[in-house]
Amino acid sequence: MSNWQDDAASDLVLNAGPRLALLTRGEGSYLWDADGRRHLDFLAGIAVTSLGHAHPVFVEAISKQAATLAHVSNYFATPPQLALAARLKRLAGAGIDGRVFFSNSGAEANEAAFKLARLHGGTERPRILALENGFHGRTMGSLALTAKATMRAPFEPMPGGVEHIPATVEALEAAIDDRVAAVIVEPIQGEAGVVELPAGYLAAARSLTLKHGALLIVDEIQTGAGRTGAWFGFSHDGITPDAITLAKGIGGGFPIGALVTFGAASSLFTPGSHGSTFGGNPLATAVADAVLAEIEHSGLVDNAARRGEELRAVIDGIGSPLVDGIRGRGLLIGVGLTAPVAGDVVAAAQERGLIINAANPETVRIAPALNIGDAEIAEFAELFAAALADVQASAASAPETGKVHA
Ligand SMILES: *Cc1c(COP(=O)(O)O)cnc(C)c1O
């Protein structure tokens, strides 16, 4: 058998670094690699596998629907698609006027949101406000909304009109006027390192957008589906947005995204103005509907809130001098570090069989399945403490660099 690392290096597009392991199987919060090693998965495919791996509900939904009807095109409706649209409207509080557009990824959901903003703005409102450090995806429209200049630069020119402003109410107040079509924000900036909006930001953004006739679009791709201990990130703030975008956790591992519109924003798309061949097919929507039903009926939103508190206490209790603070909400947690050693902590964790992620050099991101319990938390506590200690020890033995992997 050829070496998988060589195959990956020669056959996969060079948009990412070397793959970390060859994973072959999953069950619950555990993954196994090709060497038979077990890993505790506290990343969940970047906040995607809400129910963990190979959950019976996921397996049954996908198997049953695959054996029934997988795809028909959007010339037709199917029962799973209608069930999921109704469920998303209800969970989001989109009311009877709400509508849902289905896509296959987060970036595509944000492309739909971008087009929604253009339809609303027309020629009178060419401006779209997004936040510094915001991440909205890698396709051209969603990339234009993404703040990081180094991600955008090689692909200029971007679709026009997008401005990135600091995530403060004052900056929004100063920037917004009647030429703004939409303001797009993440309730917690996941890719930026699990950075929360300032308290009261969403409420202020809601009243400012209403005052100036702009749409408020909330990117819930990472924060949605119960991840933060509420159904959506905006739910904590008691506001009603004009649109939200979803993906990641709603499919539990099946690729699906959605744009949910509220109120008047629901009548902006007209026949022919947008579309997707795969979007909302019965296979994807049956799986997502089953995943969300399981989250609902097994109380996993509350579990995310409760287990998030427990994880915070556990991380705090380790008392590592490397830990600077804990950010985020529910089961979307960013552990801020006192030095840019997140990559080292993640590598040390992986050595010990724990999968976590470095959202940036100073932040470890933790986003386990929503159904974790006492056993997973206890094992995480042990492995994470050991990984921090490993990095601490090697930093002490190499004080001039402070790095393990120079
Ligand atoms: C992951 C993510 C996206 C992009 O989703 P893809 O499915 O990778 O295209 C957009 N916005 C946020 C907030 C995300 O976390």
Topology:
Blueprint: H1 4-11, E1 23-27, E2 30-33, E3 38-41, H2 44-47, H3 56-66, H4 79-92, E4 99-103, H5 106-121, E5 127-131, H6 140-145, H7 149-152, E6 162-165, H8 169-175, E7 180-185, E8 188-189, E9 195-196, H9 201-212, E10 215-219, E11 243-246, E12 257-261, H10 282-297, H11 300-318, E13 323-329, E14 332-337, H12 342-351, E15 354-355, E16 357-360, E17 363-366, H13 374-397
Parallel strand pairs: 3-15, 5-6, 5-7, 7-10, 10-11
Antiparallel strand pairs: 1-2, 2-3, 4-12, 8-9, 11-12, 13-14, 14-17, 16-17
Helix pairs in contact: 3-10, 4-10, 11-13, 12-13
This protein binds pyridoxal-5'-phosphate (PLP).
Residues 105-107, 110, 135-137, 186, 190-191, 219, 221-222, 247-248 line the site of pyridoxal-5'-phosphate.
Count of alpha/pi helices: 13
What is the residue-averaged pLDDT? Answer: 96
Task: Report strand %.
Answer: 15-25%
Note the main sheet.
7 strands, mixed
C-alpha end-to-end distance: 32 Å
Q: Tally the beta strands.
A: 17
H-E order: HEEEHHHEHEHHEHEEEHEEEHHEEHEEEH
> How are the strands of the biggest sheet laid out side by side?
4-12-11-10-7-5-6
> What is the overall shape?
globular
Bound molecules: pyridoxal-5'-phosphate
The secondary-structure class comes to alpha/beta
